[in-house]
Amino acid sequence: MKLPFACVILSTSLGLCADEISLSDISVVGLFTDAAMLNVGEQRQFLKAGQRSDEGVLLVEASSEEAVIEFRGESLTLTLSDRISAKFTPPQIKVVTVALNDRGQYLTMAIINNRPVRVLVDTGATSIAMNSVVAKSLGISTENGRELQASTASGLVSSVEVVLDEVSVGDIKFNNVKALVIEGEYPKNILLGMTFLRQVEISEEAGLMVLKSRL
Asked: Is 0.70 surpassed by the pTM of this model?
């Protein structure tokens, strides 16, 4: 299709035909008193209040905090943190695969409060759990935690419920995750229990456990 002459000129000089400019192509990158630097399509333009760009974007007013523009009969207020976009990018599903070891365990690496650790994925554990020796080595304080009795294979033991700032396994990350610190040296491995696992989808097949983030 042959474009009108005026549109051809704009396409050559601006990268987009004026008719192709939409609200999603407009953003503000600099704010001043009675002036603003705008991205319009593929071009960066400096406009003073009352000026209109070649594409028809009118800068009504501007301050160091925001700019008011008019485009095709619509009035919009933009700040430096805004970008009008008609495009929606759906959240990405993150997947972590853990292989069964020769002892029938799903062991993998995790990061707890910015410290790399080995964890045992345990869907039977109601909470992330670690012994007090490991907790101390990770700098996890139990001073303000809630004292509880934890049920183990050896019976009830003293424990303290704490909140971990951040727990991540692969690309799956959660903040403010509850965990139990159990007095003594049990469990040997940190248990990645349901306070983390209930936030993901879990499946097992052919010796692999798949953890998948929820949308």
From this structure: no
